[in-house]
Design brief:
- Keywords: Signal.
- The chain is 76% helix and 7% strand.
- The chain is mostly helical and 109 residues long.
- Strands 1-2 form a two-stranded antiparallel sheet.
- The N terminus is likely disordered.
């Protein structure tokens, strides 16, 4: 039984060491590849294409932000109107009035 435990411990140690060596080899290869690779400078046509894509991205982002802002404003206004109506519907009866949604006012009954 002691022998099996020793073999299991030796096997676990070997597996742990193997994993560490594999990780070290992977990191070494990745580092050497990243140092050896470098991008060539862009040609004028390539730079113009990149600039055109960045301009398109900026336009899409501006359009999307505007649409999102408008949607948020609409949602906020709807929620605000709903809460105002709830508040007025609870306040008007305290004074013997009813709330009129079309005029947003308390009316005498």
């Amino acid at each position: 039984m002691n022998v099996k435990i020793a073999n299991v411990t030796a096997t676990n140690s070997f597996n742990s060491l193997s994993r560490k060596l594999a990780l070290l080899a992977l990191l070494t290869m990745g580092t050497s590849l990243s140092f050896s690779s470098s991008a060539a400078p862009l040609t004028m046509d390539q730079q113009q294409t990149v600039n055109a894509h960045f301009n398109k991205l900026a336009q899409v982002q501006n359009t999307t932000e505007t649409q999102m802002t408008e949607q948020l404003k609409q949602d906020f206004n709807q929620q605000l109107t709903l809460q105002e109506h709830k508040l007025m519907q609870s306040i008007c009866p305290k004074y013997g009035m009813t709330f009129d949604v079309s005029t947003n006012a308390c009316l005498r009954s």
